[in-house]
Write a structure and sequence with these properties.
heterodimer; A: alpha/beta; Aspartate Aminotransferase, domain 1; 2 domains; seven-stranded mixed beta sheet; four-stranded antiparallel beta sheet; B: alpha/beta; Rossmann fold; six-stranded mixed beta sheet; 6 strands; globular
Chain lengths: 368, 197
């Protein structure tokens, strides 16, 4: 059976390297380093007594908060047990024969499509200097004959950004071809000038566009699972009928509702990410043998190939030193020499850089 | 007088490099790619007026140096002080094999690779002292030479780069010389300057 690898599995690493989970510095999952925001944590604590009741299957407060936040109707919002649940729901609703997914990207899109026995067509992003790019015209042309398209914007793990004009063209060509287009904006809040790339304000214009949003990464609540989709009421209603009515638990609903009031936390995080991703990019560029890809969100991809060291070896060496990084070999369309790290605070980032320098030096002397 | 120009060259690739085996003082020869890298660097240096060549006495360096020497008609000075750091009992093993066979020692080494001694091997500090002795010897034996070529390994070459440019050894991570790649250094005041080639 194929293992479904993702970042952030600190329990497995703690067991394997005999470390205490609290001593592991996790650079593998792209989660906010600022911790759970105060209002979110307070909402979770206040909701604890409500765990004796079933959660509200409609997620009324949460959906109203999301609708108000994005200035759309309540009927355009679907809550989910993380955005991952919605990836499976839309796939089961559309039941595509063939889906278009540019790779390397978040693995769950392809897993969902394959889980219903459909075919995945995957054009590749190619590295060009410090960026991963895709031939956009060829991509648009390849929409014909597909029923479902998944686009991650910015793309995880390459950081590739799709402009709104490009996305509008994709959605319009999709509409002409009876193809549903899913745009995952999980990391878009952390992109500089992110709203300019978002399709949220165009969500009313199309009947084949679904936008995914995640609260997990920005508000540091991956253990709670909460995400949502914005889309036409027809699709939202149909997915509501498919979904487990209690998939979003009481604590997640309350945390998610509170998260929409955390604009100050979000600004603080955006500022930190902008400064620190530049710091990490510049410091990684200085390490001989490592080649970082230009970052756009709160993660950076880098190539270990020039150092003659595989991503797996660097991951192992760093884990021994208590730092968890993401070997990207498990991303389809990615070779064995790419590592993804998340952007953390300056103290953590400095520790990462120092450890990476030392591990690289030691390992490359081994090949001397 | 110290030489006006120093050209550092890392040996070509070996099958052990390709397999990710720790080499240290173990002595595999160049593979086909390594031979072509050695010929390539010799060709690249053909237009230089090379006066003297020093190589580590390990086969991968000697073989690389021989191609350069043949072009210039210059004999090789084989220098054991220019060898790679010794990895003792680890030589011939891959990182994965080390994880299986020496998990605790590997962990200690990764915690502090610069002062920790691999069983039967050298510390990075000892390598640094050896490289310093090698440079003194090269200076002594290459008097009046204008251009000196030094063929060696990743570890000692990185230390030489720091030593010659006056940089602290803690900044070694800024350098990585690829297999068969030359680095040109020009005398500039009391130290050397890296030339962009």
């Amino acid at each position: 059976m194929q293992k479904r690898a993702h970042g952030g599995n600190i329990y497995e690493v703690a067991r394997r390297y005999n470390l205490a989970p609290e001593n592991i510095l996790d650079f593998s999952a792209s989660i906010s380093p600022l911790g759970v925001p105060e209002k979110v944590m307070a909402a979770v604590e206040a909701a604890l007594t409500a765990v004796r009741y079933y959660p509200d299957p409609e997620c009324t407060s949460f959906c109203e908060a999301a609708a108000a936040y994005h200035e759309v109707n309540r009927q355009n919002i679907l809550p989910g047990n993380g955005a991952a649940e919605i990836i499976y729901l839309i796939t089961h609703l559309v039941r595509p024969r063939r889906a278009l997914i540019p790779i390397p990207t978040f693995s769950e899109y392809a897993y969902a499509v394959e889980s219903i026995g459909a075919e995945v067509i995957s054009p590749c992003f190619r590295q060009q200097g410090q960026r991963f790019v895709i031939h956009k015209e060829d991509f648009v042309q390849s929409i014909a004959g597909k029923d479902l398209v998944f686009i991650c914007n910015p793309n995880n793990p390459t950081g590739t950004l799709w402009t709104r004009d490009e996305l509008i063209e994709i959605v319009e060509v999709g509409r002409a071809n009876h193809c549903t287009v899913v745009i995952d904006e999980a990391y878009l809040d952390l992109v500089e000038n992110g709203p300019a790339y978002s399709m949220v304000e165009r969500v009313r214009d199309y009947d084949n566009l679904l936008i995914l949003k995640s609260l997990t990464k920005v508000y540091a609540i991956p253990g709670l699972r909460i995400g949502y989709a914005l889309g036409p009421s027809r699709i939202i209603k149909a997915m509501t009928l498919l979904r487990d009515p209690w998939s979003v638990n009481v604590l997640a609903q309350e945390a998610g509702t509170a998260a929409f009031q955390e604009s100050e936390y979000l600004s603080r995080l955006q500022e930190l990410v902008q400064v620190e991703r530049q710091y990490l990019y510049e410091e990684l560029s200085k390490i001989a043998g490592l080649e970082p890809v230009y970052p756009t969100a709160n993660f950076i991809l880098f190539d270990t190939g020039p150092a003659g060291i595989s991503a797996a070896t660097l991951q192992n060496a760093m884990a021994t030193r208590g730092i968890l990084i993401r070997d990207c070999t498990s991303f389809r369309g990615m070779g064995g020499n790419h590592v993804r790290i998340t952007v953390r605070t300056r103290v953590d980032n400095e520790r990462f850089i120092q450890t990476a320098r030392e591990c690289l030096l030691a390992l490359s002397a081994g090949g001397g | 007088m110290p030489p006006r120009q120093v050209i550092l060259v890392r040996h070509g690739e070996t099958d052990w490099n390709l397999a990710g085996r720790f080499q240290g003082h173990a002595d595999p020869g160049l593979n086909a790619k390594g031979k072509s890298q050695a010929m390539g660097v010799a060709e690249l240096l053909a237009s230089e007026e090379v006066d003297v060549i020093f190589t580590s006495d390990l086969a991968r360096a000697v073989e690389t140096g021989r191609h350069i020497g043949a072009v210039h008609g210059v004999p090789l000075n084989m220098e054991p002080l220019l060898r790679e750091i010794s990895f003792g009992a680890w030589e011939g093993l891959t990182f994965r094999e080390l994880q299986a066979e020496y998990p605790e020692v590997l962990k200690d080494w990764l915690q502090d690779p610069f002062t920790f001694r691999v069983p039967g091997g050298e510390t990075a500090g000892e390598l640094g002292e050896r490289v310093l002795l090698a440079w003194d010897k090269i200076l002594h034996e290459s008097n009046s030479a204008q251009t000196v070529v030094i063929v060696a390994h990743a570890g000692p070459l990185r230390m030489l780069l720091c030593l010659l440019t006056g940089m602290d050894l803690s900044r070694q991570w800024e350098f990585l010389i690829r297999h068969g790649e030359p680095v040109f250094l020009i005398k500039s005041g009391s130290t050397y300057r890296i030339m962009d080639n």
